[in-house]
Design brief:
This protein has 221 residues and is an alpha/beta fold. It has one domain: Rossmann fold (3-Layer(aba) Sandwich), CATH 3.40.50.150. The protein is 41% helix and 24% strand. The chain has a 7-stranded mixed beta sheet with strand order 3-2-1-4-5-7-6. Strand 6 and strand 7 form a beta hairpin. Helix 3 (32-44) packs parallel to helix 4. The longest helix is centred in the middle third of the chain and has 14 residues, at 82-95. The radius of gyration is 16 Å and the shape is globular.
């Protein structure tokens, strides 16, 4: 696994990216990023759910979740970057969903929430930049209630050896430009969740060949 950017560098990168993040991420992923968000929300979120969106960024996943959770549900947007959340606030206001959401800034590896607090916890492309993505995933498991769902989409390696080699060559160059790489790299968190007792309900591979995503949902025992 490629070494993560330190947190201060990561905050600076996303501060500068905030206004163009949606366009850049969609372009780099051939819009498969939004497909992954829809898959998770449609599978994991139902009316009335209390949802935590970890690494909510500009709010693309949270908006889908708030629509699906409905007027009796609630979505908490949690992110390291105030600037990314500012973009999310504008999108929430335009959608007229202010009453269904709240915002909080902080570190995914140390979530400031009680155990078993949420019905659903989501992370779309936010575990990839973490220094310890397994710890972030286990924090998500801690704050979801027993029987609740965790929905994750993150970067993964191609299962084809030649494509994997090509992707690594490109990433070596891209890693010198944090504004382009966004600190994202392939991570593995599902084994840690399963070892902690989570049950795998759904798993899909999506995205462009060089940079695929793993999309999955697990249930907390």
């Amino acid at each position: 696994m490629r070494q993560a950017l330190d947190k201060e560098t990561l905050k600076t990168v996303y501060q500068r990216l905030a206004r163009r993040y949606d366009r850049q991420h969609a372009w780099l992923t051939a819009r498969s990023d939004q497909r992954g968000r829809r898959m998770l929300v449609e599978y994991a979120v139902k009316a009335g759910d209390q949802v935590l969106d970890c690494g909510a960024g500009t709010g693309s996943t949270a908006l889908l979740a708030a629509g699906r959770a409905g007027e009796h549900g609630h979505v908490t947007l949690f992110d390291l970057s105030d600037e990314m959340l500012d973009v999310a606030r504008s999108k929430v206001q335009r959608a007229g969903l202010q009453e269904r959401v709240s915002f909080q800034c902080g570190d995914m590896e140390h979530l400031p929430f009680d155990d078993n607090q949420f019905d659903v916890v989501l992370s779309t492309y936010s575990l990839c930049p973490l220094g310890n993505p397994q710890r972030g995933a286990l924090e998500m498991l801690r704050v979801v209630r027993p029987g609740g769902y965790i929905g994750v989409a993150h970067s993964t390696e191609s299962r084809n050896r030649i494509v994997r080699w090509l992707a690594d060559c490109v990433e070596v160059a891209a890693w010198h430009f944090p504004g382009l790489s966004m600190g994202c790299r392939s991570v593995t968190v599902l084994p840690a969740l399963e070892l902690a007792g989570a049950k795998l309900l759904m798993q899909r591979y999506i995205g462009v060949p060089l940079w695929p995503f793993l999309v999955f949902v697990v249930e907390k025992a």
